[in-house]
Amino acid sequence: MATTSPVLLIFGAGPNIGQAVSRTFKARGYKVALVSRSLKEGDSTKDELHVASDLSDPQSVVKAYEKVNKELGIPSVVVYNAYASTPHNPADDQFAVPLDLFAKGLNTNTVSAYAAAQHAVQGFAKLPETASRTFIYTGNILNEGPWERLLVLGTGKTAFAHVIESASRGYKEKGYNFYYADERKADGTAIVDVNGDAHADHFLTLANEKEQGPWQQTFVKGVGYKRFPIAK
């Protein structure tokens, strides 16, 4: 049954960022749908829908949206927080990851995220202009260059950073906002142990933005909320 409360949909609702974002948005009156492989759908409540889904299968995104739209309503904020990393050994063999695992990782990091954004846009078109209509992808520094043994993860993040930039430009006039969010240290270098609460606060700020400026990257915590225009 649909609701008049705004709906947040989180793909990859893990114990850190996913749960923190869920708590923060629920405190602001959102209904929340959580999508994760480990969730039990029987644990759903009237304010929090659980959807068990393996995001290495992009078709699972379609099924998740069908369930969320039916049970809670059209999501006005969608967070794609799922990821797959298959570190390769030895570190100096960039093609040590088997083809099937590379494809599976690309599905989780990029193809399913594309499906999530595609369905988000379809939903945004049905929402009033006063709704948030925001898509946030949890990124990292890998779109700026490779790290040892993280070819699979870096390829997926880099590919979807391109998607986010394209979408942020293409849907700007419609008022749909797209973000690639990345937590950094104060000096701008990468951080490994990310802060879930910092992401949640930042994502709420993004969801409340009325208009998106030029994209490249939006930073969590240390550097502060900031956009860097791309030089063309």
UniProtKB/TrEMBL annotation:
<dbReference type="InterPro" id="IPR036291">
    <property type="entry name" value="NAD(P)-bd_dom_sf"/>
</dbReference>
<dbReference type="GO" id="GO:0016491">
    <property type="term" value="F:oxidoreductase activity"/>
</dbReference>
<keyword id="KW-0560">Oxidoreductase</keyword>
<protein>
    <recommendedName>
        <fullName>Short-chain dehydrogenase</fullName>
    </recommendedName>
</protein>
<dbReference type="InterPro" id="IPR002347">
    <property type="entry name" value="SDR_fam"/>
</dbReference>
<comment type="similarity">
    <text>Belongs to the short-chain dehydrogenases/reductases (SDR) family.</text>
</comment>
<dbReference type="Pfam" id="PF00106">
    <property type="entry name" value="adh_short"/>
</dbReference>
